[in-house]
Write a structure and sequence with these properties.
Layout lengths: L1 H6 E4 L3 E4 L4 E4 L6 E4 L21 E6 L1 H4 L9 H9 L2 E4 L7 H10 L8 E5 L4 H5 L1 E7 L6 E5 L2 E5 L2 E5 L7 E2 L8 E2 L2
Parallel strand pairs: 5-6, 5-7
Antiparallel strand pairs: 1-2, 3-4, 8-9, 8-13, 9-12, 10-11
């Protein structure tokens, strides 16, 4: 989580996104790695373009830290390996610490404007409890204090999904310890 406070920033619509146009070396204990982001606020060595080359298939990837590529350089993420080895153009919209609800919002509000042939949604088991949360506690990198990080979530209103917590409140310092994630009420 320490690296998340350096590379991620608040987003009013989806909760968090990578800091745009950044290049940060993450001092991971075993294998330090480099995080490069584009103007759209996603991990990539180059910007994304709305129009695609009609002669090249484009794949969009949505997911959490596994898709975003925590603990590896951009070029070693599975989406980049698909691009390199199969010749497709791959855009990775993965964001660490997000759930399926946020992946839907990333697609609806950002990714769907980019022409594409294939959409790959990459769920993880840890996304399931994230879908039930409206916020969770993380450690701040600089102060070591707890921060309450909010996120959008969907509520079931008699069979209809209602989007809640948008605009997403900014993270807040928390006094004292909070032992569990804050779940939807």
């Amino acid at each position: 989580l320490k690296a998340h406070r350096v590379t991620l920033t608040h987003d009013n619509d989806i909760g968090r996104r990578y800091v745009s146009n950044s290049k940060v070396r993450i001092p991971n204990v075993k294998y330090p790695y480099l995080v490069k982001t584009n103007a759209q606020g996603f991990r990539s060595n180059s910007d994304f373009f709305i129009k695609k080359n009609p002669n090249v298939k484009r794949i969009l990837f949505l997911g959490d830290s596994n898709t975003a590529g925590d603990n590896v350089n951009n070029e070693y993420r599975f989406s980049d390996l698909v691009q390199h080895n199969l010749g497709f153009e791959c855009y990775n919209f993965g964001v660490a610490g997000t759930g399926l609800d946020q992946h839907v919002l990333i697609y609806e509000r950002i990714a769907n404007q980019f022409e594409h042939d294939v959409l790959v949604i990459c769920p993880s088991l840890c996304d399931i409890p994230r879908n039930m949360m409206k916020s969770r506690v993380e450690k701040d990198r600089t102060s070591g204090r707890n921060i309450l990080v909010h996120k959008p979530y969907f509520r079931n209103d008699k069979g209809k999904l209602t989007l809640c917590n948008v605009p997403v409140p900014k993270p807040q310092l928390v006094n004292g310890e909070i032992s569990q994630d804050i779940k939807e009420e």
